[in-house]
Amino acid sequence: MGNSLLTESPNTGKGLKEIFNMSNLKGEIYLFLRRNFTFRNWERFYQEIESSLSFNLEKEYLKRIIWHAFNNVPYYRDIFEEFGLVKSGEVFLGRFEELPVLTKSMLKENFTNLISKDFKNRKWFKNSSGGSTGIPQTFIQDKEFREWNIATQTFYFRKLLKTDYAKVKKVILWGSERDIFGKKKTLKAKISNWLSQNIFLNTFRVSEKDWLRYIELINKKKPHFIKGYAGSLYEIAKLAKQKGLKVWQPRLIYSSAETLRPFMRETIEEVFGCKVYDFYGSREVGSTAGECQRGKLHIFNFNNLVEVVDEKNKSVRPGEMGRVLITTLHNFSMPLIRYEVEDTAILGGQCDCGIETPTLERITGRITDHFKNKKGELIHGEYFTHLFYFREWVKAFQVVQEELDKIKIFFSGMEANQKEVKEIEEKIRLVMGQDCRIGWEKVKEIPPTPQGKYLFTRSLIYQTR
Q1: DSSP state of 66
Q2: Could you tell me if 176 and 317 lie in one domain?
Q3: Residue 390 domain-assigned?
Q4: How far is CA 306 from the centre of its chain?
Q5: From 70, 194, 413, 441, which residue has the greatest number of CB atoms within 10 Å?
Q6: Does residue 338 share a domain with residue 286?
Q7: Alpha-carbon dihedral of residues 454, 455, 456, 459, nearest 10 degrees?
Q8: 346 and 362 in contact (C-beta within 8 Å)?
Q9: Taking a C-beta distance cutoff of 8 angstroms, is the pair 164, 34 a contact?
Q10: What does the DSSP 8-state code read for residue 338?
């Protein structure tokens, strides 16, 4: 199967040139409507992003959001005065890294005081994120924040992936409550999807029959690229591999919304025959980093300020792992400053791909992916996922830390191989302690989170923080 953008459509007799022009035409109409009727400023912000790479505007963006927060957001005023960030009408960044971290629980407790006094003058809206625990986190954003994210994603696709998102056909393995609830798409949504050439496939609730139907549709539609949850991409690739099915080779695959584990990347790339590009962001903070062809995640420092910090909230060195703090640079309705997104990452160094922005080596997972033993040591979730490699009796699994010394393992597949069960338990106790209690439960399937994500490891210890 080919890997060219100029592939012949399976259901028409049109020539390659005509099909290519039709894709371009749809894309141009879509961009025209977005530019003139829905999001009028995103292209201006896109040009600003290109300028920021030459003039290092991120510091000016940071000063601007701090000045705005000082004057309009009650929560920050006293904090900024205490640390000397704002004096005599000027912003000083010298002690920025000493500012207290804003946690998710603090956001809930101080929700009203974190809203800008002028938010009603902006085209604001409420948004929410369930996170790995399924507990909703509500926050306020505005149209400018959204347009900056559109501009940022456009920059990522054009400059790092060398493709134009709006002008190519794409299959999107995402989630839709509307489909599950039986709601019909609006005419506006149908037209938007047709013009933007988005083919959405719902992965919130999927049977093996559905996955096989999706594979058939991908082979038929021959998309330029495929986008999806890391877990969804892995599941469809794993099934295709198990069934020995041939799958259309897109130009690239774009993974987002959850941690792309190394074993997941390996399977996806093997089955689809192309590179997987990891994209990092969240509903709270928007577009944050994207992987380049060299494999580094470039931080979009013109959209968000990203810090990777140790247990004392001090910056780690390149190659070291730490917690991720993010400052939104363009959400003036509810600025989030040094906001802990509860992810962990390894800080990267300079990349030679030509895009001179800070980098992350990779996102290593969510804080809840890490287990804590009685000694206070953190055990990365990947330690446990590796224990299930090449276990023929395991179709799917999830390892849950219920208490410091109690782990529950859910699995689907065949009857457990007791010899291998004993081996897995020995290796778990090696890091969690010899007195660790381990329980097993066979289930029909491992359910995704309310957001449609698949969690391989989950620590309930961190949910009580």
Answers
A1: H
A2: yes
A3: yes
A4: 14
A5: 70
A6: yes
A7: -170
A8: yes
A9: no
A10: S
> Could you tell me the end-to-end alpha-carbon distance of the chain, in angstroms, rounded to an integer?
50
- Spatial strand order of the sheet with 457-459 comes to 437-442, 406-413, 394-403, 457-459
Structural domain harbouring 412: 370-464
Q: What is the three-class DSSP state of 83? A: coil
Are 63 and 94 a contacting pair, CB within 8 Å? no
Residue 123 lies in a domain: no
Is residue 298 domain-shared with residue 442, that is, in the same domain?
no
The helix/strand count (H/E) of the chain reads as 13, 21
Most distant CA pair in the chain, distance? 71
User: Which of 277, 39, 260, 269 minimizes the C-alpha distance to 166?
Assistant: 39
pTM: 0.76
Q: What is the pLDDT of residues 246-264, one digit of tens each?
A: 999 999 999 987 788 888 8
Task: Categorise residue 419: left if φ over 0, alpha if ψ from -120 to 50, beta otherwise.
Answer: alpha
CB-CB contact of 340 with 309 (8 Å): no
Of the candidates 198, 202, 260, 204, the residue with the CA atom closest to the CA atom of residue 234: 260
Kindly state whether residues 284 and 181 are assigned to the same domain.
yes
Q: Which of 98, 86, 80 is nearest to 307 (CA)?
A: 98
Q: From the CB of residue 41, how many other CB atoms can be counted at a distance below 10 Å?
A: 16
Q: How far apart are CA 457 and CA 231, in angstroms?
A: 13
Same domain as 225, residue 161: yes
Question: What CATH number does residue 243 fall under?
Answer: 3.40.50.12780
CA 103-104-109 angle, 5° bins? 95
Beta bridge partners of residue 198, listed in sequence order: 170
Distance CA 176, CA 462 (A): 28
Residue where a domain stops, chosen among 342, 367, 392: 367
HSE at residue 365, side-chain half, CA atoms within 13 A, is 20
> Mean pLDDT of successive 10-residue segments in the chain (465 residues)?
33 44 67 68 89 79 96 96 93 95 91 96 84 61 95 93 87 64 62 77 79 95 92 90 95 88 92 96 93 94 96 94 95 97 90 91 76 78 78 88 94 93 94 94 80 73 54
| Run of H or E residues at 191 | helix 187-196
- Could you read off the pLDDT of 144-179 as tens digits, one per residue? 999 999 999 999 999 999 988 878 899 999 864 344
Query: d(Cα 145, Cα 140) in Å, to the nearest integer?
Result: 10
The residue behind tokens 């849950």 is 400
Structure tokens at 393: 């009796």
DSSP-assigned letter for residue 370: S
